[in-house]
Amino acid sequence: MTPSQELKRLRQRAIRQLVASRPVGSQRELVDALVEQGFDVTQATVSRDITELGLLKAPRGNGSANGHAYVAREDVAAPLPAASDERLRRILTDVPVTVGRSGLILVLTGTPGTASVVAQAIDESTLHEQEGTLAGDNTLLVLFADEPRLERWLERFRALQDSLAVTATSPY
What we know:
Blueprint: H1 3-21, H2 27-36, H3 43-53, E1 56-59, E2 68-71, H4 81-94, E3 98-102, E4 105-109, H5 115-124, E5 132-135, E6 139-143, H6 147-169
Antiparallel strand pairs: 1-2, 3-4, 4-6, 5-6
Helix pairs in contact: 4-5
């Protein structure tokens, strides 16, 4: 292991310990805490570390930015499928969404001003095949690493949309 690899390993271990021991709500807070521990880091380095460690922002504790703090993915309980898709279902009931495709990117189009709401609902849902979402005003890009993931995601998304159409036309 090279000295830079060893330093990275130690830095990432320190990051895991920091987010496990106290609420850290921003990259800046993390940079400051690492500098206090003797690490010479930039925000860009910490950002890469956060991505590599798979840290998420979740509601947690007081004193963190907007009541959210970084947590390790394994420390977040898996959402229940029915509960986590409910918000997406409600939004899709109100926002008609069309789906297009360009390579490994799905292009979802809704009404003006709705893309970020749809993106957040997707991110919070049980749809986890995507690499990420990127929202504009009425257009949302859903990014995929490979064809099988895109196909599985699209099948589940369309099933959600289809279940809404059945519910909307049902007399019960």
